[in-house]
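Dear support,

We are seeing what looks like truncated structure output for some complexes. This example has three components. We would appreciate it if you could run it in full and send us the complete token output so we can diff it against ours.
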Amino acid sequence: MTLKQPNKLPDWLEQPNQLSSQRQRHNFLAHNQQHLQQLLARLSQPLPAVQSKKWQLSPAMSLVRLGILVLLIALTNNTGWLWLLGLLIAGHLLLLSPSQFRRFCRSWLMSTVIALLIVLPSYWLVGSATVLLFGFKTGLILASTQYYRLTTTFQALLSGLKALHCPNILIMTLAIAITYLRMLGHYLLQTMQALDMRLVAPAKHPYRLIGTLFGNLFLKSQAYALELYAAMEARGFNGHYVNQPTTTNRWHDVLTLTPYLVLVTLFIFGRYYGIN
Amino acid sequence: MALIKLTALSYDYPNTRGLDQLNLEINSGDFVCLMGPNGSGKSTLLRILSGLENASQGDYHFDGQAITADYLANPQDRQRLHQQIGLVFQNTDVQLFNTSVAEEVAFGPRQLGLSDAEVAQRVTDCLDLTHSSDLRERVPYQLSGGEKKRVALASVLALNPKVLLLDEPLNGLTIAAQQQMLTLLQALRAAGKTIVMASHNFKQVQAIEPRFVIFNVAHQIQADLSAAELAAQPEQQAELLTL
Amino acid sequence: MHIPDNYLSPATCGTLVLAVAPVWTVAVIKVKAQVKAKRETLPMLGIAASLAFLIMMFNLPIPGGTTAHAVGGTLLAVLIGPWAAVLALTVTLLLQALLFGDGGILAFGANALNMAVIMPMVGYACYRLVQKWRHPKIGLFVGAYLGINVAALVAGIELGLQPLLAHTASGAPLYCPYGLNVTVPAMLAAHLLVAGWVEAIFTILVYQFVAKVAPTNLYTPTPTQSRRPWAYLLGGLVLLSPLGLLASNTAWGEWSPAELKQRLVAQHLSQQGPQGMVRGLHFKALFQDYTIGNLPISVGYILSAVTAVLIFLLLMRGLQHDTQTTK
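Here is the complete output from our reference environment:
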């Protein structure tokens, strides 16, 4: 190896660069960076639970409530029933703070419109009544899931699943996935930025770059897995995921679930009496 | 006219402040060393200078051109800026993504439309300058931390940027490698390059007499001193030694 | 390909969860064995789930100025092993359904079957088959392309069956309003033409990178691979197939081929679909050189079912041969 004297730089480095600029059609990196930044912002700020401290539903119960609600909406085709369920959801929405309610409306309207756009052409096939019913039901389901997402933190979801006796391994894997989604996302973002810094002209083979991006990300994720396993062992990992004790009242849970349980009972037995 | 000019520039993270009301001018050919406690905003400033982030308030002018969100949203302008500014990341892992060191260094110059011979020349020169010629055929992913630092610098140098931004370039290097790195930076400074580096290694950096820009925990610039001015302030020096 | 809620009837959703359950069971058993040899597989499941999440949210540029995204099912199967991929992708889908609103909560079983089971398994089987002829990259490319297309086909069938399975007394569909004549061609066209290629190219490029930079980090199947899980899986699926009876609101068992034909034709005609579509547009895509378009529709359906079974058996055959030679 020949060591050059550091004070003797090559000629090209002594002269300033000729700036070149080429037209670029698509900028997939910038687009994805934005997308990823939004995700990371969302992950780093677990949404505050909106319900009052006095009347907090346990995570397991809110999960059960979501399940009942979605199932009821999906099962019924009676507009009266749907109306009732819609009122119930609207009642819950009253608990949201104004800013959260605005956020809810934005994302809910957006997702409902997208869902409706797909179904709209079927108007010519099946008529307006079916499309309206479908749209109404889809809107209600989206509203209930959106409400759940808005009022539940990742941690609450995990302890809810735990209380519902999900296997420990699944909960641990979910917890790892959520944690590392942030870490890998951050790594991917930085790699894209580094690429961006050196991508001084339009990429000739954008797909090759994407291949290296995700190849690197996979290798990094393996390195994380090795580290994480070592850390788990070092802390005496025994395969159990310990959740925080919940500070909610069972009585509250049952009371909050009552309208839903009444609805389920009505739904099941209502058939015999022609209510449904 | 200053090459880099910041006017009342602030940057906010979602929950916290990142930079608070910075006013800073850096002239062409300056060698600036950013110092300060962890989280005081050194890396954030480098990211703003390189155009990876936008300031929340205030202005950033590069070579007379205002660098705004709109300017950066235009791919052509963005690339023009990146041709003039090179950044060596603190975590060099994210910067090396090719399948061999030679490919890594050739990645930038190849896009500039240089001939194969010119690209090969630049690769050889840059690897020589960073004392990494023996790594030429290695896979960057498998290099050690110090080796990655050198290769990352080589790959940025190959683009021949006007401004070189370095985030903790001395971390993870042996004392000998730190000396080599600083000697190279001095040579680049002599060639007229503008260098802005963030570092904790006050003792090593002091030897090459840069201009010190010192941050405090409130994300503000606490002091902006030439090496000679700093030499006259023993308390300030003592504080920097504890970083 | 994420099926949202309310497109599938709750009965179908329940049936599909039951159908995937044995696969998950086998996957857990197989991964436990894998964990013994490679301890970090356990945390890798969660990390791979987040990797899959990032792959699915990354917009890839496609000619024409729009974007598509890859799913990475086959890629993950090759990188971390097929059974680990099944579990990791399941976790990804669960996260997406519960926290990000991609894919329905009730439709979770259907999405898991399509994207977490069918896609990695078909892709991996292809990869292993062609790998034995010493062309792993071709196998991977074909596998990724086939994997996503088979998954899309199944998703199309799941959606398209809804008007048949769940409708009011007057015949108005309650869930997905489109019949097979719309859903299958729509899903297949999108995936055969665009998404399949995106998936295949993405998969091969990432694989190439990893194979070049760190070949030892790729998943290598243990040589003493027992065939028993496959037998369990097939047996389980065969046993579970009568569950289809539960899924329908009408008498599924009474569907003789003739009646099926009658139903399908009635369904399609009531939707006033163009005649060419009724005759099976999607068959033309699969069998371009054959004049299958002139056959009665029921024969076409049966033929395609038999073809699918045969393809699956052939893939299995290839894998069996492998275990014998390596023993």
